[in-house]
Amino acid sequence: MGKVVLYGSVSVDGFVADENDQPGPLFDWLSSGDVPLDESGVVRVSQTSYDHTRAYWDRIGVTICGRHVFDMTDGWDGKPPSGVGHVVVVTHRPPPDGWDPTAPFHFVDGVEAAVARAQELAGDRIVEVAAGDVGGQVLAAGLVDEVRMDVVPVVFGSGKRFFGPVDAQHLLADPDVVIRGNRVLHLTYRVRR
User: Fold this and answer.
1) Looking at residues 60-77, what average pLDDT do you find?
2) 33 neighbors 44 (Cβ within 8 angstroms)
3) What span, in angstroms and rounded, lies between the C-alpha atoms of 62 and 77?
């Protein structure tokens, strides 16, 4: 089974969005370089960020997100982001009216069920969990193997926390990866068990 990775871009004070659910400059690093990160050519990063991020993206089989993210992105128009094969949406509600049932999106109630479904779909590929409330719930349930964060040099002061509602201590190993890109610091930590 592939590992479960909690991932997101984050401010230096630990937020994935401001109080109005806006990412502000958190994604500026995705347009701060000369190397296209995907086929669109819109996302352009430094060579260092490309080498780190592209290798990671290529190993993702499934992304888990909450219904809030799904709704904010309009379900990516039924096409998983960044070439990911499937998206598992943690929700207590059914898919939106008119949703294409053949789209590779799976609506699941609860984080444990979401991780189980995602691992089944991903096989030996990575299960990525979006940072925020759902990511924090997956961490609190003891289901995260690794934390990856793209730390951006901005202080929000308040907003949506990277680890969501986590209110207990979780130990991480020393960082396995520390890479400096343009306007971003890429960090990777294994979760200690």
Assistant:
1) 96
2) yes
3) 17
